[in-house]
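Schema walkthrough. Field components (list of strings):
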Amino acid sequence: MGMHKSKVLFRVVIAMFCFISLIASLSAAAHAAESYDKLVYPYSYADYPQAESEIIVEASDLSGTTIGNGASVKAIVNAPSNGLYQLELTYRAATGRSYPVDVVILINGEDQHDNIAGVELPRLWTNESAITEDANGNDIRPRQIEYDIVTKKTLTDTFDGESMLLFALKQGSNEIEIIGREEEAAIYQVALRKPYCAPSYNEYITAYNYASNAAETVRVQAENADYKTASSLAPAIDMSSLYSQPNKGSRMALNIIGDAWTNPGQSMTWIINAPDDGLYKLNIRLRQNKSQGLYASRTLLIDGLVPFAEAHGMRFTYSTDWKIFTLGNDEPYSLYLTKGQHEITLVSVLGDMAASLKEADDTIQDLKQLSLDIMKVTGASPDTMRDYSLEKYVPNLVGRLNANASALEALAASLKQRSGFGGGDLAAIEKMARQSREFALKPYQITERFASFQSNISSLAAWIDNSSRVALQLDWLEIAPPDSKPEPAEPGFFQRLGYSLTRFAASFVNDYSFFASEEGQNKNVNIWIATGRDQAQLINQMARTGFTPSSGVSVDIRLITEDMILPAVASGVGPDVWLNAPPDAPVNFASRNSAYDLSTFVDADAIKARFMPSAYGAFEYGGGLYALPESQSCPLMFYRDDILTELGVTPPQTWDELIRVIPTLAQNGMQVLIDGESATMAMFASFLYQNGGEFYTGEGLASALDTEVALGSFLQFTKFYTNYGLPISYNIFNRFKSGESPIVVADMSLYNTLRHAAPEIKGKWKMSPIPGTLTTDGVINRSTASGGRASIMLQNAVDPESAWEFMKWYSDADTQVDYVNGLESLMGASARFNPSNLEAQNRALWTRSEQAVIKEALNWSRAVPEVPGGYYTSRYVVNAFRLVVVSGENYRETMLDYVKEINLEIERKRQELEL
Amino acid sequence: MTGTNVKHKQTAYHERALLSRIASSWRSYLFIAPFAAAFITFTALPVGMAIVNSLTRYSVLEPPVFVGVDNYIRMFTTDKTFQLALKNTLLLAAIIGPCGYLLSLVMAWLINSLPRAVRTFFVIALYTPASATSVYVIWKIIFSGDEYGLVNGFLKTWGFIMEPISFLYDTKYMLLVLIICQIWVSMGVGFLGFVAGLKNIDKQYYEAAAVDGVKNRWQEAWFITLPMLKPQLLFGAIMAITGSFGIGNETVQLFGMPSTGYAAHTMINHLSDYYSIRYEVGYASAIAAMLFVLMISANKLVNALLRRVGR
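Field assembly_structure (string):
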């Protein structure tokens, strides 16, 4: 019986194996048959022939030299006949910013490519120095610095990262205008070239049939990439494989690169020295272990050109083990290299996923529009018992649903054929298709199943986002003789076992929450930080390279939880400096003589000038300064540009305008959200400050919330909920994403969530400072409350001077920019925060328009002062808000009652602290 | 050895001086030493320190100042919030303790008669809420004040309400929500003890009881099952009582710290408010001492009640 079963099983396995290899060979055939036309035609001039000549305009013939902030550079060129050209710009990006230079090209005043995602000139980045070791034998992460050189870029579509844009010139004189939207760059040359189309490998290799095979192998470590187009492409640690080079056993070696190599267009370049003229094959040790069921696509360039069509969009499928990739796989392609230096570039592209993603994206846009159209008829919370006859009121409802379903079904089928596997990653597409079909058949079901319709759209958008961002890790690259045998990619079983055991043993010795300093410095500061391990590790690495060598002060960093601080400080084993402390801690510690007064340092005023006064306002107490601010945030207004435009609503600038918008939105089943639930204090402070009110009278002796101004502000705030019917509980993110609440006033952190988790509304929303109050002199007062985390020096710091040096270094613009960028490359966009250092804000990852908004909002912001007993203020403001809004109590009585309580507590606290 | 001999020895033992008696039974002391060390370090000392601290004004960061019984005077005279917290805590203990306790006993009893596989499933399903520490957060979704919250959604769909109810912010509903959520959570440890206890009862007792004239399951339960379960009953009761006196984290998660108008404020909330927000450790210790007294008295009460089981 058992024998029989196992035989059957064996046959099934064999059959499955045959089936899979059949599919694999079919898909390989399909792949080979695809064309490599990576050109983007200007849609109105698609009938123009490809140009046969080149036109080059040098800097001296250009009008203007720099682009950026809307400034442009113009060139007048003479075309011999109507033709299509590719455009190559020689440029140098202005340093000190992180965002790529985004440009728009106008030919004779016309944007021929106004339907593409955008055009970017990348900034180049490089390791500041070679990778070095610290005293414990761990590698030190080199800083990523801008590689400030003049460089060339042939304009491509940022959507897939490689498709050349073609520009049509008519016969005779043409004006080419290059506009820099936000970032600045100097333009040195504009070259119009005939479109380059890579030959096939057969054509390529026939040209070199005279060449002989090379004899030597040259290897470069991928982490030492000579330049790359994003600072997030930084060396990283791989301890999972013994064969990752270099390997240091249980010590940390920076031996790989590419963890954050996700966005189309991001590229890395290695300069490799060919020992002789001849033919080489290219081996790369790599691993794609991020997306199961998807593949990463990369295009290879040799000295800036794709050598042959097969080097376009090479696919790298999922594997948990490292692999040795040989260009051309089983029948390696040979590259002809002359003796000397060559640039090998790998660009992240969408490859053959591009067309599918574009289709899926079009479908999403249409479905989103459809869902808005439906919502206009039914409102945001439809009555499920009612038949709205949607097919009558929504134009072409059934036709649109069917068309989208067909498009998605075709897409799923083609993807299934290409990757050989269905299900899993295709589920989002198939589900959406099925639902669209069902809705087309039974439109009356739409109201009832509307929520799932929207979440299906979301998961489809998330699928697109994942598919276009597949990271690829690289260990090393080599050029080798074509007839050489590659070495094994991973060690054998026993070697692996031994390696794992060594690392397991080392885990008992290493203290992973303590980053000890190196020996040999006589000064030391002890830092405690209550964040994640990534943050602590990053600060540790930055301090070792950026702080200890120049100051001679070594740094011990310990990762803690916030509640460890109080007992530790009380028992005298606390730190010198406490990073990322909550905003109420400085005054709490200061009033109990436990925080060090930073204003006693001679250069304190110079350091304070790094921040806005509102950033440290809450850390001042009795004339002293008891902490430096680390981050700063405030409420912003987020709005859906697409929806407001369609409704003909301009984004409100004042609260009165906001109130006037409410009925218009309500007619369309939408509403405004003001985050009174979780940002109660900040929102109340906004109204209070805009009306000229204060929280306390003189130095925090008593509450000022019983004044008429404060009571009026409180009424103005609560009226939004009691009179205008704004919801009190909600999920801001979901409602904003679905369009149910196209205007939302909430904390800045919503930006991260939207960027990270709402790809389907990318580019459709904007931020602005919160609505304000029109003052008598015509200015809109947009005051609001700002908040942020603090760095505190404790009173019993062993060596205050050294600790102060550390705090100065930590709050410095260079350090903060490195820290923000480093965090974003380690943890992605969701880890972004706004540093309080003003210069760092300018240089951090925000685009200029985002930055302008944040700056304006912060300029209006003020700190809510922290006073002894001040926790009663926020507590009772929240209480009063809820009692008025939820239980319908009278605003005035409630607030006046609570002010008595607040004053009692302040008085009691002052007595206790003997003030 | 005969009985008289033992008696004689014991008398002699009691007549000796305390120290020499300790010295002569050093082996017994050695045996209890590990537990005694742990008990003294982790229970007796902290309680003692809390009582000492409760007589001071102490901010942790600065040295304590002796103030006598001022903290206790303040607690019972001017601190209205303490009185509210005390009322809430007693109310919660009075409802959740017995309800959760009885419910877990009944559940254990019912489940005990199920077949093995089904029983295992129910045991896991009922014990999970207690073992997963932050699981009550799901009540936040269930009782969310958003119209998309589960309860609100249900009530609205069936036409009971027009506008969503703010269960978590409206002082009228907060205690009710807390009680429902807490009864669900508290059916944990005690329940597991009951299941184990029930399994340990020898079948022979039931057979013997049947021979002796027990007629129905109620008699079986009262005269055999419950008396045999006495140790588990005591354990379960203590867990239920301490559990409901220790409610605090849940209210913070559900209603925020502090809850609107202190409507769901408990002793533990009050304590942590004074310790971690106001840095008043002296007063917080006084609250802790009160809580300690409450728990001890509740314990005595439970013991007294359980002595009557099966009589």
